[in-house]
Amino acid sequence: SQQGEEDPQALSIQEGENATMNCSYKTSINNLQWYRQNSGRGLVHLILIRSNEREKHSGRLRVTLDTSKKSSSLLITASRAADTASYFCATDNYGQNFVFGPGTRLSVLP
Amino acid sequence: EAQVTQNPRYLITVTGKKLTVTCSQNMNHEYMSWYRQDPGLGLRQIYYSMNVEVTDKGDVPEGYKVSRKEKRNFPLILESPSPNQTSLYFCASSLVSVMASGPPDTQYFGPGTRLTVL
Question: Which runs of E-coded beta strand occur in chain A?
Fold first, then answer.
């Protein structure tokens, strides 16, 4: 079952602009995580937000979580060409198995 | 260096020929997991393991087997591969939450194994 669903599927912006990606999920969760993947390579963890947290920051990343709407957003500020990648949200489905969404493909143009 | 390694990185095989993809981590993580990634579908969890000798099915376990005899290793076995198992496979590991029944924390991913079944 598809728990996390990212939106939009693809996003193209200019360097220096902000990029916002959204994730919706269906069931209760313990935490929600965001990962980045460069072109078919392994995923890299970006940030984890727990169900009792509403917002979290890490460098140029800002993540929000709204458990009442079962949604999360990832904001990348002042984007760079190196941010070009696919971004995935993952939820734990209130258990031990993880569910990833299909991802948002971000292109940052120089 | 802390890492998750997978072997082989690329594999082309034929239908029905048993194969094993190995996964090893050197971070003493309790939790290990296998995913497959297909275009447009994101990552789907195949099997996971909370600790040695403890394994559970993920969302797409059919056609796969796993074992967890040692903490560091979590091999994925395809007893009789079929073309619909052609995919990009990732192994991941994680510490578990401090809560006894809590979820795994940050996952560390291997580089991936690209499998083609003809």
Answer: 5-7, 10-14, 19-24, 31-37, 43-50, 55-58, 61-66, 71-76, 85-91, 99-100, 104-109
